[in-house]
Amino acid sequence: MIPFHFSQISKGDKQYSSYMEEIFRIRFKVYCEEWGFEDPTAYPDGMERNEFDEKSEHFVIQSTHDNSIIGTARVIFPSELGYAVTKNCLIDPMLHGQLLSGWKEARIGEVSRLAISKEYRKRIEDNVLSGLSSDLPDVNSHEHEKRKCNYVHEFYKYLLFQSMELGLTHWYVAMKRGLYILLKRVGMVFHPIGPEIEYHGLRTPYLGSLREIREGMLQKDPNCFDFIKDLTK
């Protein structure tokens, strides 16, 4: 039995507030205590959150044992606040414009605040998400990589489907090089739109077409989305 499933946190759920508190506590533990990306003294209640959370849809990995949240990510939607990536990274307007040329009504979301509880992370996930090491599995070690990275790969697949269902056409993502390479290996192709800068470690801003990402993954593996069907509620 698969020990986890994915869910979107509905704002209309009567447990919405308690779910969000659990999400913010996981983010505090990962982003403040474990990786040191955020200053823990800025969140005296032990919950890491910011202004973009109200403009986002939140997604979680939950244990099938007790339904507890073991991982989370958000997708920031278009709003008057803009996006975290465009506020914290340097965006090249020419690269950005070229990637959106031909799109009359591009609707962009930003994937951010991906956090997975330490006890469920593997070494490779720590490496690519936190940048603690530049080591990556050998490109030929497909089975090893698949086994090690189910949480990250499958969660991104779920976010892809949900984002397309919610009407998004593109994603912004600020990624470390290791995560970019790992996702590219399974066909998730993103395009750089600016230089690498210091932002929660060295990160590069990327823009990706959700349609192109989906097609790229299917070209790599026509059955790549079969596994995700068993992980959703």
TrEMBL record:
InterPro entries: Acyl_CoA_acyltransferase, PEP-CTERM/exosrtase_acylTfrase
Organism from which the protein derives: Geobacter hydrogenophilus
SUPFAM superfamilies for this protein: Acyl-CoA N-acyltransferases (Nat)
Pfam assignment, any one: Acetyltransf_5
Transmembrane segments: none
Source species, domain of life: Bacteria
Name under which the protein is recorded: PEP-CTERM/exosortase system-associated acyltransferase
Record lineage: Bacteria, Pseudomonadati, Thermodesulfobacteriota, Desulfuromonadia, Geobacterales
